[in-house]
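User: For my dataset I need records formatted as: sequence, then structure tokens, nothing else. Please produce one.
Assistant:
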Amino acid sequence: MVRELGHLHDATAVREKSVEAVGLQVEGFRLGVALAVLALMLTACGVPSSSAGRPTPGATPKPVLVTTGTAAVGGKAEMILVDADGRTLYYHTTDHAGRVSCTAATECADNWPPLKLPSKNSRVVGGTRVAGTLGTVPSPSGGQQVTYEGWPLYRFVNDIKEGDTRGHGWNGQWFVATPNLAPAS
């Protein structure tokens, strides 16, 4: 009889382990389903997959935006041209008819970085109050520099925040670009 009870004990232990294994399988299955549902939800919500950062073949590049803002220029509030980040845009009076004179070779571009199109971008777009002609010219440092009314556009490194116009009047050659800027000659 002890021997029979030993078999019963062994059988009970095996059954308990089988039930435990089935329970783990069920929990594993539930976890797998939950992870699959989560992955579908993240995909549907637009969370990028492992191919994030890679451009989609044939995708239209985002245009560079030149828009307007208001800033104090020479002590009075004026409507000015700004980039997509709200940074003031300038023109250089020594640039004529689309010719860029501020270059890295003259160390000018260190203080006056040009507004350029990203390498895969093909166009520049103006905001609703930008009535003049936007275009591009070849940049001496490569790529295309954005122009407004034929004037190549720049930023100033000492402009820290949106609305800064610290470069206006610099050396009598640098001025804030405004929507009513006369065409370059």
